[in-house]
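Tutorial sheet, problem 5. The four components below are modelled jointly, 692 residues in total.
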Amino acid sequence: MKKSDINSTEIARLAGVSRSTVSRVINNYSNVPAETRDKVLKVIAEHNYFPNASAQVLAGKRARTIGLFLIEQGRVSGDILTNMLIVSVIEHASEHGYYVLTHIIRDAKDTEMIQNVREIFFQRRIDGGIFIGADNREPFIEQLVDEGFVIGVVDQELPEHPEPNRIVSNFNNDSGMKQTVAYLSGLGHTQIGAINGDMNRLSGRTKHEGFKQAMGMCGLTINPDWVLDGDFNETSGYESIQALLARKIGLPTAIVAANDSVAFGAIRALKEHGIRVPDDISIIGFDDHALSEKHHPALTTIRVDMSEMLKRMTSFLIALIEQKPLAMKEITMECSLVVRDSCRRI
Amino acid sequence: MKKSDINSTEIARLAGVSRSTVSRVINNYSNVPAETRDKVLKVIAEHNYFPNASAQVLAGKRARTIGLFLIEQGRVSGDILTNMLIVSVIEHASEHGYYVLTHIIRDAKDTEMIQNVREIFFQRRIDGGIFIGADNREPFIEQLVDEGFVIGVVDQELPEHPEPNRIVSNFNNDSGMKQTVAYLSGLGHTQIGAINGDMNRLSGRTKHEGFKQAMGMCGLTINPDWVLDGDFNETSGYESIQALLARKIGLPTAIVAANDSVAFGAIRALKEHGIRVPDDISIIGFDDHALSEKHHPALTTIRVDMSEMLKRMTSFLIALIEQKPLAMKEITMECSLVVRDSCRRI
DNA sequence: CTGAAAGCGCTTACAG
DNA sequence: CTGAAAGCGCTTACAG
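Model answer (structure tokens):
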């Protein structure tokens, strides 16, 4: 019932060596003869001894912990994507012997919340942190980078002269957006609208830029009435369509949504007005959300490998923490069209 | 670019007091005059000082971290429920000023994985841990309890003489199961089958017991051919129905699934064989999974408040860690029927 | 190859 | 009300 309170002094005594030697064995120093090592390891195993992490860190070792910071607006967080992200980071960190301290930031502009995040870094609980869902160039993250902490940010611009302690990762949103327009154009659509994502996020901007460029390349003109504001949420997709319908102007024959959640919301609004997808209007998403395949209609979208991206981000971050040479500071992942049932030929 | 490496000695010097006093201010000792306190706090704020967590822990303070251990079989973990659990624990721990170290256990019988978990406790990285998805009386968890660690286990039996360092939480599965049978019985069903959950889990057993009892109370007999094995996964629901259909015996008019995932799998298998739900057979689930409402047909099920349960579990665990008096060692949550479209009157 | 000793940055009796 | 000092459990130059 009593917690075994054995420490390195005790192990040293039982093995008949000094604490220095015990420490050398634990830290795999090469200058310990096999015999001594085995003797010490035996005592360690017999007594269920694990070195106290705080003492190790205080003595200069790494915390072997990375922070995972999820910036999620107030909304309920039953998101399946979020879960994939978390699990991906945890599992890959684990493979490197690292632990993950997850923290949720409900409002990245709230001073107190920012202070909580800073505290985690300054208290040295973590060796580095990954941020997901941040605005591009979010000031408090920039500050942490300036302060020298090892930081990885998903969906973020890499500065022209990147600091050695910063890495970013992105999908090739430009390519993805061009694929959506190319596909719709191929189906004969010329009247194509878009629901934008959050323009404070890098992906919101690059997707919109990609859309504009692709429309031009395909010789199509953009009708500003059909370019709707959104913020990557289901609700924003729903509301943007409601607003569009309320204006009682003509509809495009196809809409490119900034992501699948937005597409779901848009389809929900359309359905409520008796407008059928894809019979009356085609909708294409972005992300290939876990639900898109099961959605009615099954959503045509751009597939993106979040799990793999976070895996790479985690490995890169750990490499950076351990000061291993890193080939690059930016991870870019390709993405590609998945055709399902939400778009039709015109 | 250089990390500010200020410590309490430096703060003390700048404030013109001793480190003892700085520590007293940080730890809210009552015997520090307001003037001294303010002077110190000012210096702390000016210099972005946060006490080193490792040093605090080593000196005897709590790590203010709880471990969240998810036991999930090898399968892909894009589960929306898992995400709710994680987020619920993180947010409520955060409210108490605690951090969460999440760890995934792919195989609770693997010695190395168990050792990894033990390490986290023995290294004193965490003050206590919550386990989700464990078998009832999982040996390695029992051992951690014996070793005196503060442990909370979801879906677990409380021993007759509970240790002071153990808490458990459960849904009233018995009640839930009785509601499913009562509802089906009310719809006129007499030929009711069941797909069991994992019988190593407490909920698997209590749901099955509840089913048997409820059938008896409603004066219905159980046909053993219609009581199928399962393990709480979509796949097991699918496979159990495939196996049943392969036997080419009669079907029940209704099936109670151990949870919604199992129900989804069962419906998928039935659909593949052209058997319609609810027209040809009624299916009722358990959990009210986030997808159940959007499922075709929308799933009739038992609603359970996972998020609230984990919230309570987290609060209880922290109370236990802080040695606050705890009214009870077991959390039991009620659950109730949600009628949708997957069952029909006979 | 190995031990004695200093040091990591805190907290907290202890003494005044 | 406050400071000097011991102690938490490690690691790692340093010396031999």
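Marking note: Chain A touches chain B through 51 residues (CB under 8 Å). Full credit if you identified this.
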